[in-house]
């Protein structure tokens, strides 16, 4: 069984990682909203669906469709386009490939209702567009519902790729943010671990506060977000703020001189904290829950071994 002090140090470090992870998330969200990064990534993804390196008239015309414009945010660009909305706009552009009046209320031609109509309308499209759409239309047979389903699956697959690229980009940005925050606050994992090990008062204070910490936003099994009353989110928020106040005095630079070994340890400790913070708060909330379960189960076993 792990020593209780070791688990308490682990809990203290995990709380610090949670605090920095949440701070990184807040900063990243601010930057993403300020620069409209999600909408720009989505626009890039839509514009590269057909002809990523040649003429983009069709893709641009599709992206500027009134249906897509109608769900745009205040920035004028949508950050999310539902598959059914995209396919309806696509079918309209197939039926009216030369229509540039994006302010029109109705298409000049109705949407295709059969596979034959769809294939006939596609004859007027650029070859690059036809080469992408033809297999999706032809493999659906005569069922137009299957045509729509094929187009929606194709779009969803493309958007999964865009989402994956954005997540990888975001992870890099969050690591840079974490590095900046960690350097500014001197959040050295090795230094903090030594402090927790040598100072039982600080360690146990953080452990007591960590007992009340859990994810602020929890979801039910149906994916529906539960209320604060159901999750106790307000209490968890207070506990997290209290824990943040507890660790503040432990952070900051003192200006003390360091020898070479201490410098290496400092760099390693700072990098460890930055890497840990970049893993995200959900990861550390899960780790905290498991460590608390291990610690409390160990306490129960220890008590049961004591003879009456």
Work out the helix count.
14
Q: Percent of residues in beta strands?
A: under 5%
Round the mean pLDDT to the nearest integer and report it.
81
Helix content class: 55-70%
Distance between the termini: 22 Å
Order of helices and strands: HHHHHHHHHHHHHH
**Assembly form of the protein:** single chain
Tally of DSSP β-strands: 0
Number of domain units: 2
Stretches where pLDDT falls below 50 for ≥5 residues?
Answer: 217-235, 301-308
Dominant shape: elongated
Q: What is the SS-derived class?
A: mainly alpha
Based on CA atoms alone, the radius of gyration comes out at 27 Å
Largest sheet: none
Question: Your description of this structure?
Answer:
- The protein is an all-alpha fold.
- Helices cover 69% and strands 0% of the residues.
- It has helices spanning 4-35, 37-47, 57-63, 66-69, 83-95, 115-122, 127-138, 144-185, 189-198, 200-210, 228-231, 233-247, 260-278, 281-305.
- Helix 1 crosses helix 8 (144-185), helix 1 (4-35) packs across helix 13 (260-278) and helix 8 (144-185) runs antiparallel to helix 13.
- It starts with a helix and ends with a helix.
- Mean pLDDT is 81; it is low at 217-235 and 301-308.
């Amino acid at each position: 069984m792990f020593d209780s002090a070791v688990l308490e140090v682990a809990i203290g470090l995990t709380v610090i990682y949670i605090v920095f992870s949440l701070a990184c998330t807040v900063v990243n969200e601010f930057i993403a909203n300020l620069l409209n990064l999600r909408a720009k990534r989505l626009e890039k993804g839509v514009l590269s669906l057909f002809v990523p390196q040649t003429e983009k008239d069709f893709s641009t015309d599709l992206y500027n469709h009134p249906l897509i414009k109608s769900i745009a945010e205040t920035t004028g660009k949508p950050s999310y386009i539902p598959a059914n909305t995209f396919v309806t706009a696509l079918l309209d552009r197939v039926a009216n490939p030369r229509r540039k009046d994006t302010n029109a209320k109705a298409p000049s031609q109705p949407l295709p209702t059969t596979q034959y109509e769809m294939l006939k309308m596609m004859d007027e499209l650029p070859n690059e567009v036809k080469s992408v759409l033809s297999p999706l239309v032809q493999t659906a047979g005569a069922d137009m519902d299957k045509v729509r389903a094929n187009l929606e699956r194709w779009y969803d697959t493309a958007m999964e790729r865009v989402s994956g690229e954005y997540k990888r980009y975001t992870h890099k940005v969050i690591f840079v943010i974490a590095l900046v925050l960690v350097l500014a606050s001197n959040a050295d994992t090795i230094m903090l671990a030594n402090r927790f090990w040598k100072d039982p008062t600080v360690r146990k204070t953080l452990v007591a506060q960590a007992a009340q910490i859990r994810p602020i936003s929890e979801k039910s099994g149906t994916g529906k977000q539960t209320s604060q009353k159901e999750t106790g989110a307000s209490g968890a928020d207070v506990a997290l703020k209290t824990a943040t106040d507890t660790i503040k005095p432990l952070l900051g630079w003192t200006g003390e001189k360091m020898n070479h070994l201490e410098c290496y340890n400092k760099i390693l400790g700072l990098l460890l904290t930055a890497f840990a913070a970049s893993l995200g708060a959900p990861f550390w909330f899960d780790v905290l829950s498991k460590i608390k379960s291990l610690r409390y189960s160990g306490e129960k076993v220890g008590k049961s071994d004591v003879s009456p």
